[in-house]
């Protein structure tokens, strides 16, 4: 188990543990030895996936709870061939970038000294050839919603943010840093964002040194010093197409800045953008040395093949309608037709169909429902999907940067109508969001635990709500125990009522006479006459 070290900002970093390397180029380099082992394809496939928790009994929950469960699909991630290819390329890019930055070599110290001297004298970067070492770049290009950002996030999650190397190295290694390209395409904004993110990861205070007033050239040198001092492995810049919105001189300035990072400072870079950025990268970034070393990864929509079937098969169990449907070829065809192989849209259609089925009370999704929700909620993307279907590249380029539909926000808005439909009291609007999420989480856990203990669903919900309402700060474990205590007390009370009812009958003289008479097959009327508690009609006898 990795040893954790708490940083000044309260975050945790792992302590370096060194592993002997099989590859000769990687040996005796503590930066590479401290990284997780190189993964096989099988290992990467398992570790890259994220399949959220799912309980079959959740379908018994009320509609508004199932709406919260639906958003779990947003975090669902099934690695496919492209993801595995990205993991392999990133793994090589990261390690290759460290080969010439071994802290045990004097070159590293010479570089830091030179960078510091230039920083103090506010000189241009231009490191001498005997110090400068080149790095590589990788670009990932594809349409919005194809899963580029999700894939790189999953790959980055396999590597720690910070690794602490103790004596004699005494360094803080940052294997990767991910930034979004500023909307205005400004390299200075990107530089300041870089420094802010490094402070957030390391718990340092570099940004407070009045850097906003400094020139771009000064900031670039400062970034170079930070990157070298903290051994930044790879810099990832997403949404690179934002440079197209900037003025040409700003755009050129940004591209020159990126080339400088690769060539002069020696930091590998991953650039991610839509197809609009492709020409920009090919024209302006080609001067970066070894730019083709790790190449360009084109992130196209999925084909209707085994990968598509694997994706849907993994996703299909996440159904929260009362009645489930089986994954058939028809379902595969319909979802592909309506999403054109764009994973983001396929997952959202699956979620939206379930939300409609739950709200309408149908409680079962159908293929026709997929088409209906697509027309109803994804109007902005339909033209782009049609262009993809027809293979019309000119049309596709027009719709390249359509903002993906925010299904989580949509479901939260729809939750209000579902709550009204189920006649469930709405929580007060001024309750803090975190507290509300905690209450929902605790409530769901308690209800599901009680259901698993064979408590009837509606009764489980009633008891759980009562317990949490009376004890707002209670933990889920304590709430379950208290709920079970309440249920047991209720059962005992009901049993006592039945017992008392029986005892009352057994001690009542009239009931006793009637019960004894029935044993002799006498009617209640005859038994009471025989005991002279009543008289027969037209009889001359008197009771008293």
What can you see in these coordinates?
It contains 22 helices and nine strands. It has helices at 30-33, 41-48, 63-70, 81-99, 106-121, 148-156, 187-202, 216-229, 248-265, 278-284, 306-315, 329-339, 343-360, 367-377, 379-390, 393-398, 407-421, 433-452, 457-470, 476-507, 509-519, 524-530, and strands spanning 4-6, 12-15, 137-142, 163-165, 171-173, 176-180, 234-238, 269-273, 296-299. The strands form two sheets. Strands 6-7-8-3-9 form a five-stranded parallel beta sheet, with helices on both faces. The longest helix has 32 residues, at 476-507. 32% of the residues are buried. Mean pLDDT is 78; it is low at 128-132, 286-292 and 416-439.
Summarize the structure.
By secondary structure, the protein is an alpha/beta fold. The protein is 53% helix and 7% strand. The protein has helices at residues 30-33, 41-48, 63-70, 81-99, 106-121, 148-156, 187-202, 216-229, 248-265, 278-284, 306-315, 329-339, 343-360, 367-377, 379-390, 393-398, 407-421, 433-452, 457-470, 476-507, 509-519, 524-530; strands at 4-6, 12-15, 137-142, 163-165, 171-173, 176-180, 234-238, 269-273, 296-299.
